[in-house]
User: Fold this.
Amino acid sequence: MKMARSMVLVSSDPISMQLGAQEVFQALQDQIKAFGLEDEISLTMVGDVGRHDALPLVIVYPEAVIYGPVTPEKVPYLVEEHLYKGRIAEELVASVRELSGRIAWLHARKGTLPAEQRIVLRRAGIIDPTSIEEYILHDGYMALGKVLTSMTPEEVIEEVKKSGLRGRGGAGFPTGSKWGFVAREKSDKKYIICNADESEPGTFKDRLILEGDPHSMIEAMAIAGYAVGADEGYIYVRGEYLLAQERLKKAIQDAHEMGFLGKNIFGTDFNFEIHIHAGAGAYICGEETALIESIEGKRGQPRSRPPYPTTFGLWGKPTVINNVETLANIPPIINNGADWYRSFGTPSSPGTKVYTVLGNVNVTGLIEVPMGITLREVIAIYAKGMKDGSNFKLAQTGGSSGSIIPASLQDTPMDFDSYAKAGVSLGSGALLICNEDTCVVDLAKVLLNFFRVESCGKCNPCRIGTQRAWEMLDKISKGQASLSDLDKLAELSENLYMLSNCGLGQTAGTPLRDILNYFRAEVEAHIRLKICPAGVCKMEEMIPQP
Amino acid sequence: MSVETKSSEKILEAVNAAIEKFGAKQEELIPILNEVNRQLGYIPTEAMEEISRRLKEPKSSLFGVASFYHMLSTKPRGRHVIQFCESAPCHVVGGREVFEALKEELGLEANETSPDGKWTLITTSCLGVCSVGPVIVVDEDIYGNVDARKVPEILARYE
Assistant:
């Protein structure tokens, strides 16, 4: 690769594209040519950079200056000032206040903000995701080479076990153990599945990994395949993620051409193939057995477990299913060792976690931080505080299936065990932060509406329970409920948890339980006083009973 | 109703192309249906019958699959499909007002198609672009940070 004096990156996530990133790219290309700088400056598109207030962004290295929002009209000035004359075009620089994610971290090096810790997103926003050469230049396929040429499958599994890596899809199951179960199975065929059907509301971390660093999935899946004895893998991508599908397709093709996929990888007798399977819009397909059914071309309805996919998975064969973020941790663990990995996070939950920070805060976007930081820290440091000086009321973690976290728990370390001990769950990594203008009844109603729509309908407790719970919340929100309805709601929550077949129904009752636990007074106000303290719900006149 | 239904010829053409692309295998059923849906805007009964014949799969199980996934439609839709995200992250930052504005501007309720066949309004779960909520998607165009006032302007972009 030719070394350039400066590197110019244009953000190319769907939102930037929508806002004209392609035109900005074109304008940059023209201007750089007009100044005769095309040999000195490399111009590329990058995946999502973790901030969304000033898109599209133009980032210039090595100074790491971030310009945004950039329009084609501003490009001539930018090129002349920065690239030709070498002065920073101050008036186009994105305001620090709006910075988040990876970009905030760049500023952190100048001493204004604490750093993020990026492991799984270390390349996203830095490399051109469509270039396998750049991936390789940034340590890509090094881990795959290492395991194939110098480690036995047992050693690979041992290393992953030692790292303490736990599944990042929400359940937190130890990844090394899962691999161990499948490796132990005797079968002529085994599969690796990458669960990229990210559909927890508020979660888009996997999309950014897929769009910004697609080769990391291929590398990690091949390592998993070697470790458990599988020669075929599937990436189940959410149907709506068109850009991610495109990038993955290109990555698989390039990996084939370079010999990182196919037969005799790295000159060994290890073979591996990867297929992409696009979903067609169903939240339930994120559940692993539903996902398998969907790959097999059926309705995405969860199977009864056991048997687990580790023994009876895709087409009845032993199958490893890992979340995108989990897999993205594998190559760095192999490259740097389990001890290195354990130096991040907490003893029971090592490593980092990618969070999507949303809601009534000043800066929304994506951060990757060590496991175990607290909600208060996230709000104060990364989200730059609550919007318009409002007060924190609650956070909803992990999409719909997470918990509602009241202010009293905002100093609880965010790791699997601390949260479990506090009776709440971390979920998939979405942090929906709400201020006092949010009504808990209204919020729970939205969550339950999600579940009643997304319930696959296979088992009665979930199909009927989610509908009934929504109806009750609707009644409460209109001031038409009685206090005894709250007992019914609590019972329903318990029944959903105890009787549902899969995780969807089991967690559907969590919002009900949480609002009754932490915000009972507010819920009761809707019933006793017929008022909504947050001023959100519209009370209706009671219909007289005949 | 003037919602466009497709001619038999077009339907067969779309089915042939999809089966050609993915192969007449049961495990490729979802990609095939997806492709037909993309080509025609929905999956007509005729297409379902043809796929059933070619894949040797009963029509009932095909209908089961087609009606299960949100991205597949068994009914004709308008020329432009508007998806409104009704999940919590968009809801708490003003999604409700946007939905009211959409309904008023279009004169439609959720899951309805306008009589002139131009618009279909559907609600959807999270689309994964939450940091710019509230979000609406028109056909394949994503609009973020939408507020009620922007709705007429966005809709005016479509013929």
In short: Chain A has a mean pLDDT of 89. Chain A is about 40% helix and 15% strand. Chain A touches chain B through 54 residues (CB under 8 Å). Residues 347-435 of chain A form a domain with the Ubiquitin-like (UB roll) fold (CATH 3.10.20.600).
